[in-house]
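We read letters as residues; the fold follows as tokens. A sample entry reads:
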Amino acid sequence: MDSMQRQSSSPLILWRDGTPDLAALEKTSRPSAPSSRPQPDPAIITSPLSLPRPVLQKDQNTARTIEPVFQNPWLTYEAIIVIFQGQSVFLARHRKNKATLVNIHLLKQQSSSVKPLLEIISQLSHPSFLALVGCYYWEEQVFLVREPVELSVSHVLASRCTITESEVAAIVRPVLEGIQYLRDQGRALAVLSADTMLLTECGGVRIAGAEQSCQIDAAEMDAATMKLFALGEVVERLIMKNPSQYPWSAEVKGLPDELKRCNSPEKLLRNKLFEQSGDKGELKMLVNAANKTAYHNLESFKRT
């Protein structure tokens, strides 16, 4: 099969020189998140495109406000595939520097709301949040250009991979650090789920949606409002993914309940489970394996 064509039961979206037909895109049904249903044999799964990933600059997560560019983003970037993560997300590459891959998130917003949105993103700069590398505004739509991610924790849950204690810790620790950072800013995530916990190719963990976080009074900060309870539910699902006889330690077994009842991310981070989880490379093998065995619900397309 031609590598530039993917077949499915949904209508094909036309791409002209790397520019997606957004009108056709809106008419197509949006795929649901990966499910836990039995997966097809890994040998017949179409793998993600094997393209080089960009090297992120050291200052990419530093606090700086990115100014919007009021022009068509597809003059600069070439769309490759479209992914749905609750909103339209494109994997794209720079037209001149082909090795530079990005994710482009499409939002419908008024032009007056673009700068306030970018200011919030710049103010909430943390290694656990998706890095923003650019922003375009075109035809009443905002295109946020972000660092590329490989998959979500939902894909890990839908894969055939078992997961180790060190991998659980490596996923949870950056999320806790992001929650703690927001708490220090008097804010809390609006949503946290396996879909919004993202993994990069090199094993980094990113939380999506930090810019949608809410201002919240200190008196209202608890396990539910800070989304520690939601994190505990994700950890429960990760634990249940392994065979019932898997030898989890007492720390991992008790982690979901601890997350659900604790009001202090700092206290949780002092758990000895996280003492050795500082190396993001811990998740690199898991990302690679999950990518090969998870069901990737990508929108089909035909490039012309």
In short: The CA atoms of residues 190 and 212 lie 6 Å apart. The chain has two domains: 66-148, 151-295. Residues 1-12, 28-62 have pLDDT under 50 and may be disordered.
